[in-house]
Design a protein that fits this description.
The chain has about 475 residues and is α+β, with helices and mostly antiparallel strands. The chain is built from 22 helices and 6 strands. The longest helix has 24 residues.
Length: about 475
């Protein structure tokens, strides 16, 4: 496959376009989409794996938690401060779909958006909200799946117009002289943007309802019809609220949903206003103005908060409160460990955080949960043994009562070849996780990516988080 190192070099085939958009324009989405669907398709994986995927990306984590706390997705207004708790309260399916949508917009909004790009983004969000709200009215088993299917059904158009390719200008020239969009796309590209979307879908292995909506134009499947009708509805709304096209859509949706035409029209109007809010929550501020000309909720784009401005103490307190709430009820050990690891990773601003289990023979530890370790995935778990000549930092920390602050300059012999190979030679904290004073595993954390110094306050806070594991494990044993 030919690599296009310059965006001014126009790909020559459908396959080259897919490669360019995947590798050069939307690599984050390509990677995240594959990981998310892999986690959900594998019966051996679950909430822990999904949380780990999300937490690898700080921007994605922040955006997901912001949306999870919005009235639209969290009408009960339960404060959610951790990805782990978001999954517990909202469910894996909804979090998966929201994560996919967030990662999608995180990728495309980094491009130089122009009018066509924003119009396509607006149409995608508007269609998704309309589809979801109608799905809820129809008692659909998973309205979130309908939302994402409608959102990504025209992914080819959105990705293309956000690519800032010279081909976009050529297509626009043809559109201005009256050539219809399909003919213009074929003349310039040799294929339609709908075909491009289908290939991207295959490459990202999205499957399910998204693929069905893309490929099954003539079908009796109600959910596919709903997705496609929602897209058609948004196109009709652009023509006019009294247009024949809109009335035809309303009539079709009324027949599909068993709602009256008046009820459908009322729901469509309300959903349009919701779509503006959702667009802004996803960060698509420029696109939101194309959803509704009548009522635009003006929201200023939030300024990026620097690391020094961020209130880590407040985040630490919030996560500790969520951990306390969890251990006061039915304790799930995996969720408890996820929350604690998230508290250490995000709350103490660590680059890499790891929970490892000690084997029965007490001769090795193996990775169970990892954050910030992109090389660790699936079966590629790292394992450390204590069979080298001399002890290493992990086993030294495992036997320490109150944790161990390892420093390469002060403890050179503990940085064995095995440690240096898999972790590097970084200052770090290692805390034992114990049951009845016996270690069963450990929590490791460092700032080995950005090389910020560790402090005594950091050590104390991490120690406090680790003690929450001890408390939870003790309570679990008492109750069981």
């Amino acid at each position: 496959m030919k690599r296009h190192d310059s965006l001014s070099t126009l790909p020559q085939s459908l396959e080259e376009w897919v490669y360019t958009l995947q590798v050069e324009k939307m690599p984050i989405f390509s990677h995240t989409a594959g990981q998310i669907y892999s986690a959900l398709d594998d019966n051996n994986k679950g909430a822990m794996e999904l949380a780990s995927i999300i937490l690898q990306d700080p921007n994605l984590t922040a955006k997901l938690l912001k949306i999870s706390n919005s009235p639209y997705y969290n009408p009960s207004r339960q404060k959610i401060g951790t990805v782990s708790r978001a999954i517990v309260i909202m469910g894996m399916q909804l979090i998966r779909e929201l994560t996919l949508a967030c990662s999608f917009f995180e990728s495309i909004l980094s491009s130089a958006n122009k009018e066509c790009a924003n119009r396509e983004i607006a149409k995608a969000i508007h269609s998704a909200v309309q589809a979801r709200e109608l799905a809820v009215s129809m008692g659909d088993k998973s309205p979130e799946e309908v939302f994402v299917a409608a959102l990504l059904m025209n992914v080819g158009k959105v990705a293309f117009w956000c690519s800032n390719s010279p081909a976009a200008a050529k297509i626009q020239e043809l559109l201005k002289v009256g050539v219809n969009s399909l003919d213009a796309e074929k003349r310039v590209l040799g294929f339609t943007l709908e075909e491009l979307g289908g290939k991207l879908n295959q490459s990202w292995r999205l499957g399910g309802l998204i693929e069905a909506a893309m490929t099954n134009k003539d079908t009796n499947d109600i959910r596919v019809k709903l997705v496609r009708l929602s897209e058609k509805l948004c196109g009709a709304l652009e023509i006019g609220e009294e247009s024949k096209e809109l009335m035809d859509c309303v009539q079709e949706l009324a027949g599909l949903s068993d709602l009256s035409k008046e009820q459908v029209k009322a729901k469509v109007s309300l959903s349009t206003l919701k779509a503006v809010e959702i667009a802004q929550q996803f960060g698509a501020h420029d696109a939101s103005k194309y959803i509704s000309k009548e009522s635009i909720a003006v929201t200023e784009i939030e300024p990026k908060i620097s690391e020094t401005q961020f209130d880590y103490k407040n985040l630490q307190l919030q996560i500790l409160q969520e951990i306390a709430l969890h251990v006061s009820g039915a304790i799930d050990i995996n969720i408890l460990l996820e929350m604690v690891l998230e508290g250490v990773h995000r709350g103490v601003n660590m680059d890499r955080t790891l929970f490892m289990i000690l084997n029965k023979n007490r001769t090795s530890v193996i990775e169970k949960i990892s954050l910030g370790w992109s090389k660790l995935s699936g079966s590629n778990k790292i394992q450390f043994t204590n069979e080298e000549s001399g002890r290493n930092i992990l086993f030294h920390g495992l036997e320490s009562k109150n944790g161990f602050w390892a420093k390469p300059q002060e403890h050179p012999s503990l940085y064995t070849a095995q440690i240096v190979k898999h972790m590097g030679k970084h200052e770090c904290f290692v805390f034992p996780v114990q049951i009845e004073m016996k270690p069963i595993g450990l929590i490791y954390c460092d700032r080995g990516v950005h090389h910020r110094p560790l402090t005594i306050e950091d050590f104390s806070i991490v120690n406090h988080f680790v003690k929450q594991v001890q408390i939870g494990l003790t309570l679990y044993r008492i109750r069981h």
